[in-house]
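REQUEST ID: PR-0412
SUBMITTED BY: lab tech R.K.
PRIORITY: routine
TASK: structure prediction, single protein chain
INPUT:
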Amino acid sequence: MRKQITEMLKGTLEGIVLAILAGRPAYGYEITAWLRDQGFSDIAEGTIYALLVRIEQRGLVDVEKVPSEKGPPRKVFSLNAQGREQLEEFWRTWSFLAGRLEQLREGGK
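STATUS: complete
OUTPUT:
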């Protein structure tokens, strides 16, 4: 089951990260730690950082460099208006797919 969860997460991870950032600004390690606390233990930190770079390049987040007690400044990501629109689209798509999957599970009613 773990491999199947990993495969399914690949298509939804961006939406999950956008949803996390809709709640509050965060940096990469915080997001990874939160996901792991929620049971997504197989998510590599590098996966989250690569995703954050992609959503930054697409203009879905604003980035602020915040001084860190340990090492270089942290990049703190916050969802902007374009990111909120993308998140709304993700939830619409999720609702559509979840509804169709539930229909299939119930025998195609």
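NOTES: The chain has a mean pLDDT of 92.
REVIEWED BY: pending
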